[in-house]
Design goal:
The chain has one helix at 25-36; strands at residues 6-15, 43-48, 63-71. It is α+β, with helices and mostly antiparallel strands. Strand 1, helix 1 (25-36) and strand 2 form a beta-alpha-beta unit.
């Protein structure tokens, strides 16, 4: 905000073998939207599994990627 930008939307991918995202998606979207001061329809969260690949698949960590679209 201080630099004159606003968040238009956000797309988040959570990769984990741990808890499923689906039961928590609505609450997560609402919280992100509240924090970013955007409509919840502009916040998308997807869960993915790693299907046994890398150390992340052993349940030792969670990978998260977030992409924002900013506007001035």
């Amino acid at each position: 905000k201080e630099a004159g930008f606003r968040v238009v939307n956000i797309d988040v991918v959570v990769a984990t073998e741990g808890p499923r995202i689906a039961p928590h998606r609505a609450a997560m979207r609402a919280r992100l939207a509240d924090l970013l001061e955007i409509d919840a329809s502009c916040a998308n969260i997807k869960g993915k599994t790693l299907e046994g690949l890398t150390d992340l698949a052993n349940g030792n960590a969670v990978a998260v990627q977030a992409v924002f679209l900013l506007s001035d």
